[in-house]
Design a protein that fits this description.
By secondary structure, the chain is an alpha+beta fold. Helices cover 40% and strands 22% of the residues.
């Protein structure tokens, strides 16, 4: 029996700031760039749940978040507190959270700075898997004073969807025999790989829910979505055979993030890239390796075109500052005509280090 867990920290950056700053307690909070009285040009990184009640969400222009805060204040509600990001702190907390998960489960795959997949098949039952998940949540709460939501399912896809059903601070289980039915009533957007553009393609055919899309044949979906069609066809039926966990013989360490919406905001992308680099370095620091020589950047555009670039250093590096500096140099051409002449928005960025030395 295959049982997979997915952990997602609740409003991670905002929750860390609330924990560390009592003045933020019970206040709507946005972590991101300075709104500059509505003239700021950055975006929202994370909004806590009180700020989300105002309609503020991740990747929203910070100027729009400021305006929504002003609207809420005019209606007699508390104004939003805006806080700039602290990537180093979030990376350190992330590393400690992942180490907690690894105390309970051997096979863990960190998906981003605030989420991870882990294989619970060893528990032998969904009941036992749920108990382990509860212990993980409790340990994170006691040791880091933060809440997390965990989803459990027969594969990565279903586990992640289960997580989204119970946020925040929830625990949700979808068993294998219920997986396909559980997906049917959900919006088509919950399926990984379906972004705003693909969603609009389905909408033109009157398809908004997963059950509607299941009426299409495999050939129809492939014609609509191209090379991703076959995978999407299986996802819509709750099927996902992707493995979980790092390989036994580690040859590289990496992190990647898929944005909630396609992005072209340089400041936001660079901030997230630095967080990914710090998360990679934290894993490197605990891995037993002493250095790395190659850095690999992955960029996926909104049209799913994926580009990989690598740079081999002339020396063995062991510094997070070097990793961040080189990563920024590598992604810079994607903001102009050198690598992105059509000015396409980015859907995903990833950083990986290779040629590891002991």
């Amino acid at each position: 029996m295959r049982i997979i867990g997915h952990l997602d920290m609740d409003a991670f950056f905002a929750s860390v700031e609330e924990r560390d700053n009592p003045r933020f307690t019970e206040r709507p909070l946005v972590v991101g760039s300075d709104p500059k009285g509505g003239k700021g040009r950055g975006v929202v990184s994370t909004a806590n749940y009180k700020a989300r009640e105002y309609g503020i969400h991740s990747a929203m222009p910070i100027s729009r978040a400021w305006q929504l805060s002003e609207n809420a204040k005019a209606d007699g509600n508390p104004a939003v507190v805006f806080c700039e990001t602290d990537g180093k702190k979030y990376g350190e907390v992330s590393c400690r959270v992942m180490m907690i998960v690894k105390r309970f489960v051997d096979s863990v795959e960190q998906a981003s700075v605030d989420e991870a997949y882990f294989d619970l098949s060893f528990t032998g039952s969904y009941e036992n898997a749920q108990y382990i998940a509860q212990q993980i949540k409790l340990a994170v709460l006691q040791e880091e004073r933060l809440t997390a939501t965990v989803g459990i399912g027969p594969n990565r896809l279903v586990a992640k969807i289960a997580t989204e059903m119970k946020k925040p601070n929830g625990l949700s289980v979808i068993m294998e025999e219920d997986a396909e039915h559980a997906l049917e009533s959900l919006p088509i957007r919950v399926i990984p790989g379906i972004g705003p553009k693909t969603e609009s393609l389905f909408a033109r055919k009157g398809i908004r829910l997963v059950r509607d899309a299941k009426n299409l044949s495999l050939e129809d979906i492939c014609a609509l979505c191209g090379v991703w069609g076959e995978r999407l066809y299986m996802y819509m039926r709750g099927k996902d055979d992707a493995p979980v966990g790092e390989k036994e013989n580690i040859k590289s360490l990496g992190e990647q993030e898929t944005f909630e919406i396609d992005m072209h905001d340089c400041a936001f992308i660079l901030m997230r890239l630095q967080l990914l680099a710090r998360a990679v370095f934290e894993r490197f620091s605990f891995s037993g390796f002493s250095g790395f020589k190659r850095i690999v950047l992955t960029v996926r555009f909104g049209d799913f075109t994926t580009v990989t670039r690598s740079h081999t250093l002339e020396y063995v590096a062991s510094s997070v500052d070097i990793l961040i500096f080189e990563s920024i140099k590598m992604i810079a051409p994607f903001f102009d005509a050198r690598e992105n002449p059509m000015r396409k928005s980015l859907r995903l960025v990833g950083i990986r280090i290779e040629k590891l030395s002991l």
